[in-house]
Design brief:
The chain has about 600 residues and is an alpha/beta fold. About 65% of the residues lie in helices and about 10% in strands. The protein folds into 2 domains: about 300 residues, Up-down Bundle (ABC transporter transmembrane region fold), CATH 1.20.1560; about 240 residues, P-loop containing nucleotide triphosphate hydrolases (Rossmann fold). Helix 5 packs antiparallel against helix 9.
Length: about 600
Amino acid sequence: MGGGRPGPGGPRVEKGRNNFSFSDFFKLINQVHPKYWQLIVGILAGLIGTGANLIVPQFAQRLINGFKHLNINLVVLTGVVFVGGVLISAVSGYILGVFGEHVVSKLRKKLWSKLLKMPVKYFDNTQTGEIASRLVNDTSQVKNLLANTLPTAITSLLQFFGAMVIMFMMDWQMTLIMLLAVPLVIFALLPFMKLSGRIGRARQDELANFSSDSTNVLSEIRLVKSSDSESKERATGFKRIDNLYSIGVKESWINSLMQPISNMLMMILVIGILMYGGIRVMNGSLSMGALISFLMYLFQLMGPVIMISQFFNELSKTSGSTERIGEMLDEPEEKSADNQKVNIANKELQLHNVDFSYEKGKQILHDINILAKPNSVVAFAGPSGGGKSTIFSLIERFYQPTSGEITIGGQNIEDIDLTDWRQQIGLVGQNSAVMPGTIRENLVYGLDREVNDDELWRVLKMAYADKFVKESEDGLETQIGERGVKLSGGQRQRIAIARAFLRDPKILMLDEATASLDSESEAMVQKALGSLMTNRMTLVIAHRLSTIVDADRIYFIDHGTVSGSGTHEELIKSTPLYAEYVHNQFKK
């Protein structure tokens, strides 16, 4: 874009992260109005299932102690409680899963809506792959904590403390030994838990970077191949993959140590309690059923201890995801006056003393004053990088002037509903953007009304595009590929012009619409543009003088200023820079 707009591929700045806060987490979740009743029912069902698991060892104790006189009713009751606990836990998992999917669905919708309302400036400074990673990976991380880890941690705490209370009631001496040992086990595992959390966060960040880089490269694969940059991009991609591999190796190393160490510590604890319990059984102070029941509770404690350690790991990962999603949702949206709709036909467009800079301290436009009258052709000429396309971007309201104002019929365009404003403007650029899909879908893209085939063929004929569409195998249903790769440059331009005919814009903006075309395609596009420019205000950016010499008024833009304005003949006489520009054009 003219004026040196910064590209999206600049260096990434890592923002400082705060410690995890449940208030921030639930503040984020509350924005999507989740069905908390599902969370409550799911947790309650989980607690009931956990309660059933806590009762089963008591029944097992009675069965073992009364093995010689087996109580069939107790066997049936034990089976019912055990199976019932499993089924209730399954129901709990399903409800919590539905709750989590509902939350992540609404959160993604909110993020998607937010992204579509963000100004172009945000996308200038943020890579597409990184945004996609936040939209998919970070929301999944939030869902995982909310629907899986948090409820499981709550039921694990009930299971832990419930088992502890029952064990104290059964035999306080053995419980006290175990109670002293469990904190030692957790303390021994704490460094691994903290390190695992940091590695998990690093993995999330590196995944976002890898996603961003790969999206950028694959979206411009033709540039990569035509520039013989496969080896460079391979090296860059391998570096990212190696970073992920390195993080994965560290994670595997931590997990490989954490698992056996925790198993060893728990095994030492179990053996210690078995030895002590065995002695108690031998001297008659403890029954065999009580010892087995006690051991069952001990095993029930292992799961919660591991789960709680995983919970803190997930908290660490989710803190980054929560912060990044929050930052995205806090980004300012495009300014729009929601109610004021104005018909801009037959009104003067003016730029009054407009200054603009993409970045603070780097001014691009300086005191721009421009007047475009209804049904006139206003052209912008000048060297590349002078600021012509930036002026178009300001008129489209992709950006707002740093100072000054743009008016239509004397009214500031910032006071007009943004959707209504853009619906009345048609833009045909040098590389007309198209969406993956069919020719039909691209023609009607953005329209809020039904369009029949007759109207589509009419605008295609007006754009001199009907012939190649008819010759296509599927006609209007022809797939054009990503970024329209199955169409030639001239064909894409004519589809864009046909789309502009459908919109019937009040202001037509042509940004180098024929610059990249061969002579045959240019001739056809010029014919189509000639028809499209009739009876409407047209703003034209062009390097080729043949495009602008007949304009009602030409503004010569150089280094972000208006160096001169007038008709072609007037500028030749009054503006030496324009005369030199014309001279250089004829030399080519």
